[in-house]
Amino acid sequence: MTRFWLGGYGPAMDGSADGIGLLAGDESAPTALEYRGAVTQTPSPSWLAQHPSLDVVYAALEGDAGVQAFARSGDSTLKPLGEPVAAGDGVCHVAVSSSGSFLVASCYGDGRVVRIGIDAQGRLVPDAVNKAAELRAALLGEPLEAAPPAGVAVAASDPYPGELTATGEERASHAHSAAFLADGRIATTDLGFDLVRIWRPTGGGLVLDHEVVLPVGTGPRHMVVHPSGHLHVVTEYSCEVFTLGPGRDGTWAVVSSVLASPIAEIGVDFPAELARSRDAQFLYTALRGSNTIAALRVRGGGEALESIALADSGVDWPRHHVVHEGKLLVAGQRSDTVALIDLDERTGAPLGIRHLAQAPAPTHILPVR
Fold first, then answer.
1. E-strand stretches of 73-171
2. Span between the terminal Cα atoms of the chain, in Å
3. Residue among 18, 28, 31, 23 at smallest CA distance from 6
4. What is the DSSP letter of 95?
5. Nearest-angstrom CA–CA distance, 120 and 106
6. What's the rounded Cα separation, in Å, for the pair 58 and 69?
7. To the nearest 10°, the Cα dihedral for 18, 318, 170, 190?
8. Judging by beta carbons within 10 Å of its beta carbon (0-12, 13-18, 19+), is residue 225 exposed, middle or buried?
9. Each residue of 205-237: pLDDT tens digit?
10. Distance (Å, rounded) from C-alpha 179 to C-alpha 230?
11. What would the mean pLDDT of 300-323 be, rounded to a whole number?
């Protein structure tokens, strides 16, 4: 049976999802996917991540500023594994380390990048320093000061001071995603400050190593680590994909950039997710606005990209997509649908919409392992 966990927006975030949902097809028709309902009662679990070795799924509770763990308790059911752990305002992305010992949560609202520990059973472990502060406040009757947790990395310096947003507002830090690099360091995007930050994990948290400054107004959003070691970054505002690579001294820099599509319309199209094919020869990004899927070919040793195709996504506001068994699944946040698109494995081009399933305000698709 083909199954996927679905993240979604609930009523508090203008959606209709009740929690983490299940999208599944039966053995006789694996591509005829149907929404089987919510398997958790969770407010706006907008992003999901799988533990590398345990049957545990982590959800970013975007509207509630927290992250929660869920253990798979049956063939297609999830149960809470502990209470939610505080992260930050607008937490929109979680990425789990390959060791399964911690995750990194990115918070759009306040720009925080939060490292949260994971124990041997997959439970989230709140920072011990914060727990000690909470205990002291409870015992002495003191107010708990609103300070960043010890596991939070705050690096909100704007490389373009004095610049305003397109609407004339002051720029603000907006962390949006994290990716684990081959050398153990961690890359995060700051969509508001046009930065890709490189962090070193330490016993005391994340330590900023250096920053890669992208052109002002690009809005780096999500990333894909290529097997070559290059890092591909899609930008929400400029509709580009930047490729970053490390120098001999370990310092990362931009090595190339390309428009997601030659006909993408800046200010109308807003790229969301970036996903690669299984053989890593192709990348796909979705353009919210025109509601299309842009396909790109990876050139050379991963250091360059070429736009090759643009196709209908089949949904409204394609928030997330994933390549699965030679097909592309696309979550339409505003159309309450998930589209299944055939891909040409030779050319990488989307071939057409095979199936459309109804699902409430889907924002993330995670294959059930």
1. 78-80, 85-86, 91-96, 102-107, 113-118, 124-125, 152-153
2. 11
3. 23
4. E
5. 23
6. 4
7. 90
8. middle
9. 899 999 999 999 999 999 999 999 999 999 999
10. 12
11. 97
